[in-house]
Amino acid sequence: MIGSFHITPSYYLVLGAALFSIGAVGLLVRRNVIVMFMSIELMLNAVNLTFVAFAKALNDAAGQVLVFFTLVVAAAEVAVGLGIIVAIFRRRRAATADDLRVLEG
Amino acid sequence: MTVVLFFLFGGLTLAGALGVVLARNPVHSALFLVLTLVSVAVLFLLQDAQLVAAVQIIVYAGAIVVLFLFVIMLLGVDRPDTFEEPLRFQRPVALSIGAIVLAEVLFLAGHRWATGARTARGVGVTGGAFGSNIQRVAHVLFTTFLWPFEITAVLLVIAVVGSVVLARRSGERPEPIDEPAP
Which ipTM score applies to this complex? Predict the structure, then answer.
């Protein structure tokens, strides 16, 4: 029974889709900018999971290489984004998205 | 064994993701994020991606989450978040958009063209003349993807310079560093 049951790549794709949706909803619902950033990380992880699932399904290591580029972009994004949050917090003393209505310096 | 591990860590991944979104305290969100990242690393291991799994733990759980926690502690925003809605109907609209996204991605994942065709050339994940996972990834990274790899170096330099510019207090001169007496 359990021996004949195989995990196909579709399972990973469905898991990645669910993870991506949770991240998207978190990005839309939460007000805290730091938690919104974490939701973006969830979405990036869902994409990474999909990349690795396709690399395994298509037997092509390029999918795993692309995960590295995603990681680099995520690291750069977090560094700059958290820098922006610190800069905003220094002026406004608040870190919710509602406080960022105007684009003055 | 693989089936049990997939469902165990797949469930942990989703539970951690829900915890990130639902936790009121940002510190709890960060810790749930660690749970999700480690579970995803285990799922990478299940799919013959050992190097990616290790890098996932080192970079994500080791660097990015620590950076998150550092900023949370630095800013002192670890007080609970209010869940009041400043915009009317924001939450129902967000949930329906999330449901639409989920339906779309599931719809695409079920299609045959989304699963692609098997590549005849290139470096495979398993089999072939290449050895370990690191050798395979390195071979692809430094031949096919050499130019994107160089561009990521530029991107990282830009990110470092941008972070330094953002973190610098504007309008203040940097304090001179006292030279130690010889």
Answer: 0.88
